[in-house]
Design the sequence.
């Protein structure tokens, strides 16, 4: 009985997760056929005693709390669609719709080689895949004393690039917070508690039950690597300041997940990836600052702002007074980066095709190449005007 309940809840969350970036809300619960089928294919490695412990902990959680965690969170999950897609496809929560079999997705797949469907069921049931993102979105509100990467391996590159980006672009960037997202928050009771309360509006008692459950899951499955598994932090995002009572004003921020940087470092792009991903997110802050998002929504609007962020990024990365990277090297990385699986061409979160994204980046590089000869950096306003004029041509790609 308990097992059936768990499975149903998991399926409900699978559905909620698949729609997390779309506007419609959902309460639909399917019959659980997919999860049942997956469970049949792989077996659990959990001992009976551990399984009973987890089931007992799960049974303590009030139904109302389960409904909240499986439903829409109080706050919109910040995920770039292509990052969400790669996580979901790798976990087989969604069918692949296009050929996105890149080195980075293969690497992530390998990291999940020792996972079975019991584990997937638990992490989906608890929304553990989203907890590090929500924690960073709501509570990481200072750049001070931050460390990037599980052992601080990206700290120096990111801190330098962030300082550089603030100097490079003439926008109001003083108050942007740069902060990390570490999967190890999944072993930190206080962080788990505060995140369930803030993101899912749980009361103290329910949040405590969930915290017990999550801590026991991480403890039961070494495959989760104490939370330090890239699947939990395969994400990076830019967020504009917003008021979130009773927590107050959440500042402008950029969050860089350990997992996404690990993926590109593992396949040989550790020299470019952290700065390139950061420069793209910084590009979104240029858009916030110059109010470039406008009222438009839908796939065309998102494509415009995403291609623009790619262009800002390439301009900074290749500019002699920016990161001054070799364009060929940047291009090699972008070739992998732009192919990680955004095939939802009609989705509101669509970024443009990989070819369009590369065209936008290449154009940004060419502007930088010309500007170098003139020895100056275009203002964000000038660069944006040029981009807007170029956009129809980029879309022909
Ligand atoms: Zn973006």
Sequence:
């Amino acid at each position: 009985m308990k097992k059936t309940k768990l499975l149903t809840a998991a399926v409900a969350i699978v559905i909620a997760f698949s729609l997390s970036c779309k506007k419609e809300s959902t309460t639909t619960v399917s019959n659980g056929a997919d999860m049942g089928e997956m469970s049949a294919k792989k077996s659990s490695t959990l001992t009976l005693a551990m399984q009973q412990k987890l089931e007992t902990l799960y049974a303590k959680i009030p139904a109302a709390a389960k409904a909240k965690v499986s439903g829409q969170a109080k706050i919109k999950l910040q995920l770039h669609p292509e990052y969400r897609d790669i996580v979901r496809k790798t976990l087989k929560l969604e069918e692949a719709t296009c050929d996105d079999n890149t080195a980075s997705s293969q690497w992530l797949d390998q990291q999940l080689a020792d996972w079975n469907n019991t584990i997937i069921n638990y992490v989906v049931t608890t929304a553990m895949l989203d907890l590090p993102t929500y924690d960073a979105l709501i509570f990481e509100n200072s750049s001070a004393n931050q460390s990037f990467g599980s052992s601080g391996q990206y700290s120096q590159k990111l801190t330098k690039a962030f300082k550089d980006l603030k100097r490079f672009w003439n926008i109001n960037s003083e108050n942007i917070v740069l902060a990390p997202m570490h999967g190890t928050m999944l072993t930190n009771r206080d962080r788990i508690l505060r995140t369930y309360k803030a993101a899912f509006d749980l009361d103290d008692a329910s949040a405590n039950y969930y915290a017990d459950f999550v801590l026991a899951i991480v403890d039961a499955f070494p495959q989760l690597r104490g939370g330090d598994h890239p699947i939990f932090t395969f994400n990076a995002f830019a967020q504009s300041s917003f008021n979130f009572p009773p927590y107050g004003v959440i500042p402008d921020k950029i969050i860089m997940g350990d997992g996404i940087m690990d993926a590109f470092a593992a396949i040989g792009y550790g020299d470019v990836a952290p700065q390139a991903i950061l420069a793209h997110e910084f590009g979104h802050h240029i858009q916030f600052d110059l109010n470039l998002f406008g009222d438009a929504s839908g796939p065309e609007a998102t494509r415009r702002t995403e291609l623009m962020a790619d262009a800002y990024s390439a301009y900074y990365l290749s500019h002699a007074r920016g990161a001054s990277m070799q364009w060929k090297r940047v291009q090699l990385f972008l070739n992998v980066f732009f192919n990680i699986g955004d095939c939802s061409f009609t989705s509101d979160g669509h970024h443009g095709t990989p070819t369009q994204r590369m065209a936008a980046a290449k154009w940004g590089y060419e502007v930088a190449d010309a500007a170098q000869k003139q020895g100056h950096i275009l203002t964000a306003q000038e660069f944006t005007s040029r981009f807007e004029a170029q956009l129809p041509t980029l879309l022909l790609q």
The chain has one domain: 2-394. The pocket of zinc ion is lined by residues 80, 280, 284, 306, 309 (CB under 6 Å).
